[in-house]
Every structure is written in structure tokens, then in C-alpha cells.
Amino acid sequence: MRALSTTSSVRLGGPMSFLQPVRAGLAVLLTALLTACGGGGEITVDPPASAVSVSNPRPLPAEYLARQAVAYGPYRTATSASDLANEVIPPGNIRQDMELLIQGNFRLIRVFDSGDKVARQTLDVIVDNGLDMKMQLGAFMGGFKFEPNPNRVEDIKAANLLELDRAIALANDPKYRDVILTVSVGNENIVDFSADRIDPADMAVYIKYVRDRVSQPVTTDDNFQVFSNPLPRAVVDQIDFAAIHAYPAIDTEFPSSLLYWDWKQLGVAAGPARATAMMDASIVELKKQFQATRTALDSAGLSRMPIVITETGWKARITGDQAFRAHPVNQKMYFQRLETWRQESRVSGNGPVNIFYFEAFDEPWKLSDDGWGLFNRDRQARYVIQNLYPQAIWENASLTDADAVYFVPPTINPDFAANAFTLYSDAPGASLVAGYNLDAFDGFTAPRNLADTTISAAPGDGTVSMRITPTPAGYGWGLLYNPQTGGTTQNLSAFSAVSVWMNTTYPGRIEIGLSTLDVDGNGHEAFVQIGNGDYGYCNTGAWCRVSIPLQAFRAVNPRLDFRLVVNPFYIADRYSFTGKASGSNIRVPLNIDGIGWTR
User: Fold this and answer.
1) Which of 138, 331, 344, 316 is nearest to 222 (CA)?
2) Is the peptide bond before 359 cis (omega within 30 degrees of 0)?
3) Which helix (H) or strand (E) holds 311?
4) pTM
5) Pick the CATH number of 420-598 from 2.170.190.11, 3.40.50.880, 2.60.120.430, 3.40.50.300
6) For the structural domain made of 4-403, what CATH number should be given?
7) What are phi and psi of 15, to 5 degrees?
8) Tens of pLDDT, residues 273-322
9) What integer pLDDT is reported at residue 12 of this predicted model?
């Protein structure tokens, strides 16, 4: 087994074979199937000399500078990171992707690892079919900076060496050499939010190891903050160009004094002008982040080092905290401004030498970090690029520029005045809150009888109860109260608990939940799992009064705002959260009564 030893204590050794997650963007994962290797001996890498790449930088190829660039991942069906290894990627799918990108004049792609499944197979499709496509090859590096298990550290280092050798082999292969224009070692391994942290001194050794063995320009991809002050000089001295990531859209979800920009634009009248102001401000922020990198490099005597933005983009759909931001029209507005700046920079020389848009296609396995694609997962062109493709493959033919979204502050209504906020009850004197539908998850998982008389009602709560007979999907079932008018909220901040009477023999735990907005208009939900004896719940076939304090929901999700309650009540059993096997198909009925909030 070969090992890589260095003065910066990077030593790679130990056989391994496992699926290694790869970061791309903020918490974005790819995979490389890492296999054991044998034979060899030991490879020793000399300590990096100062300013190796700066004293003799490799120029970026003209085609790398001229081509419109996009990040590429081929995954279509995997729905979680753990599913990636099982997804089969036919060469025909990759060829379809390449031909779609070439049709839109996106002729430079960035891939994130050097494995056979994505990188080699994509290269084969390009070469074997004579496609006019070039590539920035990636080498995934697993992080070990904070790994407490020494054996695990050695495994990660062994996997990293295997990946480096794969990247070197691809970059030097005569079949691929003309396609691979640059090589990137690592992806967001240095920035402090990385899940795969590597010390800069160790990363410098990895970069030098590759750069000594390939002829292409070499870099490492990371957040722009890494390339701003203070520069990781050990790393910068090994690269031919700076490859930075900058996401003004993401920064609005994680605001700080360093990254704050005024995306809400409340000083502009609500309407299209506010949307325009937001998107104008987003590019101003992107330029500011680029300039922070340029200034840091210039101050370090590296004014000749080119900067490429290798990741930036705007979401076309909400998959997290992007209310009033993520939308196909806003994505188009960002892309247009980005392209204008890219073309201006080519003339002036004062901006990035190229920009890779993130990303080509949606990949469902990314979950809350999906939705960036120029195409959706079904290879339908989004509004941003519909002018480049026939309407037959458009995602939505009804959008116009006027549909751009912009911030509208949620309205906080006065406190709900009554002593109880009652959703279901026929107790004497009960006053029900109007304006809600009672909807099953997926429309079918929780059929109910709103006036069941087969058993007695809850104590003191009239003569009927609600009977739920689950018809679950594979994940389980659920039922919730939805406002009939979208965007309706209730100010229930003066209340203290969610209460419900229950009578059931349903096995194991169930869930009670709710959802709210926050002041930025983002939705947040929380479920509390309860079993026999929790918060008064019982599954003995007798009536039990369940009362869950609002603090218990807030402990699950601190971003709940009870001034902006959207869905005041869920009842559910999502099997993965209650400890049941997927597909459990539990159909034991539940009788419930007296649903509401109490002070």
C-alpha cells in the first residue's frame, strides 16, 4: 500500500473501500467510489517551496477563458446522498446532457471528482462522440482536520491519495488531455463552514503533488473568504489561479456583519422595481466579494494571478429559507447580470476571467440545496435559458418577467383575543376558528370521519369525535390544518400549549406538529414525537388529554415565530422520525377531539 508522507503531517495509508461524500457549494455532496489499492511502496512529497506557482505560473488556456462555463452533475434519480452509489448513470444520459449544454453554448463544464462514474464516463462521452466540450476536472478531498479517530484519519488520507492519482491519470491520458483544461484539487475544504476541513498546509501538499505530475493549470476551489485576508499563503503559493465561490443568495440565509447586503430593498416601492433593485444589489454584492479576493491577492504581490468564479448562481425554486428570492424569473435576472459582468470583464480585464454558473441540472439528492439548475431534473429548460431552446422542452411556458418575486413583509396580526384557539370541538359553548381546511399529507394518507359516533366523545366535549384511519404511504401518514387563504397567519404568541384529546391503541410513537413563518417570510415547522406517557398521551384505548407546551416545539425549531402561525396543528406518523420501518403500513384508527391552542 502506497503512502504519502510530508512535513505537514499528511500521511496517506491503509486500504479502504467506501462511498465518500463530496462537498460542492454550501453543503452540496457528490460521490467517488474509493477502492483499495495494493503494491507500490512509499511516495514522499517534498515540502512546498515558497511561491512555486507564482514564480512560474501556467497560463489559463484561451478556450478556458472564452467558453461559457457551468458546473455539472449527472444524477437524476437519487433522492438522498446515501442513494448516490445505487444510481446507474447510462452514457446516453450524459450524452443527452452534453448535447443540451452545447446547444445552449455552454461548452466548458466543471466536475467535482475524478471517479469512473462521473468524470471518466463524461470524458468518454465527449471524446467518443466528438463533442465540442472542455472540462475543469476535480479531485475530491476528504477532510480530516477535526477527525478524532486516528484510524479514520488514515483511511481518509488513503482515499485522498487514490483520488489524486485518479485525477493525475485522467489529466495525463492522451485520450482526455485535450479536453481537460484545468485541474482543481479539493472543493471547499479550507473555509471554516466546511464539513470536510483540511489544514491549508496539508492542502498545499496535495496541490503540489498534483501540480508536479500534470501539465494543466492547477487550483483549489473554495469560498471567496478563504482567498481574502488573511490569505492561506501555503495554498496560494501552489496554485496557478484563484477559484472562488460566491453566493449572494445563500448569504441572505446566513446573514452576518461581513456578508450582509440589503436584499429586501424596502426603500423601493413594492412591485417590479423592488425585484429589480434586489437583483441589482445581488450583483453589487458579488462584485464586492470578488474585489475582496482581488485586493487580498494584490496586497500579497499576486496582482497577476487570475481569478475565476467557479461557483455562483440563484435558485429557481424554494427548497429552504429563500422566500421572496428563489424563483425562475429572479434566476434569469441574476444570470443576465452575471453574463453582462462576465462579458465586460473580458474587455476591461478588471473582473473575473471567467464564471462557472452553478449549476447545469437539478439533482434531487441535494434536498434543501437543490433548485439551482438551468434545467430541472427532467431536462426541461427553465425560464432563464428558454430563449435558447424549443418550447417543447420548456419547464413553464406561462412565465413572464413581471412574475419576479420581491420581499413583502409578513403582516403580524393583533393577538388572537379569545381564551382558546379551537379548531375542532362540539363542547358546549365552543367557538371554532373558521378559515381552515383539514388536509391529508399527499391528499390521501389520513382519511377521517369528522363526526364519529361509534365511541363516546372526549370527556366534556360534546357527543362526537373525529376518527382517523390511516392509509399510509411508504413514509407514513399525516393530517394538517391549512389556511384556506394562502399566506394567512394567526398571532398566537399569547398562548402556551397545543392540546388535543386522543383515544387509540396505535402502536409506538406519533407526532404532533405546527408551522409558522419568520419575519423574512420563510416557513418553519416542528414536530414533537410522543409515546405512551409523554405530555399526557396514552395508547391504551382510553381518552387522554395531550398538552404540549409551545416551548417543546421551539426546542425542535428555534426559528418558529408564534406571531405568524400558518398551520396550527399536524398529527402524523412519519416512520423514519418515530422509529418505524419504511412501509410499515400501520392502519390502526385514532379518535381525536378538542383540538386547539390553550393559554
Assistant:
1) 138
2) yes
3) strand 307-312
4) 0.84
5) 2.60.120.430
6) 3.20.20.80
7) -70, 150
8) 999 999 999 999 999 999 999 999 999 999 999 999 999 999 999 998 99
9) 33
